[in-house]
Amino acid sequence: MKKxxxxxxxxxxxxxxxxxxxxxxxxRLDLQGYDLFGYDLSGVDMKDAQMTNAVLKRTxxxxxxxxxxxxxxxxxxxxxxxxxxxxxxxLEGASFKGVNLENADLRGANLTNAxxxxxxxxxxxxxxxxxxxxxxxxxxxxxxxxxx
Length: 148
Fold this sequence. Notes:
Pectate Lyase C-like, two-stranded parallel sheet, 1 helix, about 5% strand
């Protein structure tokens, strides 16, 4: 597992912002295998980031934008992700144990084999393209269905 100082992470986030804006010096955010335990990344735009097998345990991710990000195998255990944008994310095998995903946007997300134990998903959005783990009931979880 790779560690990163917050200052170095901020540089990567700034380079990613440049990438998203189309700047020539922009670099797509790649945090594959990084340990971001406990960081506060509220409101950060990490759209299309590559974060396979990263550790984001006990992170604060309020209103983070992870649309289209590759988050397979990510450990989000006990994180706060209220209002997170996870549209069209690859979340296969991710762990959401004890996570607050209330008001999150999961439309088009793939959560195949994700660990949803003790997850709070009240008012989280999903659609016909959302792939939920086998046996997971979005209605009893309080999720809201949206049609395209």
